[in-house]
Write a structure and sequence with these properties.
By secondary structure, this protein is mostly helical. The chain is built from ten helices and two strands; from the N terminus they run ααααααααβααβ. The chain has a single domain, classed as Endonuclease III, domain 1. It is globular and about 50 Å long.
Length: 189
């Protein structure tokens, strides 16, 4: 008897790496500060590229950026940045590499500024609960929303870069702040 294939959102059908990401990460509520920081930086690195290009490099990014240790990243020197620009495990774009360092410093501002946790800084935009959409077709999914616009502005205000509204909306989807699984998808809440 043939194994029945699960019904998934259409964007993830390219291969098993995409399917695994869809099934185990995308849309699952993430509340760990370090993981949220990593995902935001990875979404920024994706700008102008396919998500798949970043997805296959997530381990390379974790290795290159000290397993997303914000304290270490914030202290990176120009010499360290030059070394990162030679690392084939990441996207070797100077602006994107420098943005991770800039973002680490902005993250520290949030943590030191009495604003609570990074999780609270982000999740407050959705009242700390997942917004569930009811899309039936991929073409219905927005690229940005008023909420992603507001989160983008808040992130930029404290010094983050590569956090435009479209990037932020993709981040919100990945972190489960919005559930954009199609209503036919098996991962639907």
């Amino acid at each position: 008897m043939a194994k029945k294939e699960l019904v998934r959102c259409g964007w993830c059908l390219k291969d098993d790496i995409y399917k695994h990401y869809h099934d185990t990460v995308w849309g699952h509520p993430e509340r760990d500060d370090r993981k949220l920081f990593a995902k935001l930086c990875l979404d920024g690195a994706q700008a102008g590229l396919s998500w798949y290009t970043i997805l296959i490099r997530t381990e390379g990014y974790a290795k290159a950026f000290d397993d997303w240790d914000v304290e270490k990243i914030a202290r990176y020197t120009p010499k360290k940045i030059e070394k990162l620009l030679l690392d084939p495990g990441i996207i070797r774009n100077r602006q994107k590499v420098e943005s991770v360092v800039k973002n680490a410093k902005a993250y520290q501002k949030i943590m030191e500024g009495g604003k609570g946790s990074f999780r609270d800084f982000l999740w407050k935009h959705v009242d700390h609960k997942t917004l569930v959409n009811h899309w039936t077709e991929m073409k219905q999914l927005p690229a940005r929303t008023p909420i992603s616009d507001a989160m983008s502005k808040d992130l930029q205000k404290v010094g983050f870069s590569f956090v435009g509204s479209t990037i932020v909306y993709a981040f919100m989807q990945a972190c489960g702040m919005v559930d954009d699984h199609l209503v036919s998808c098996w991962r639907r809440r």
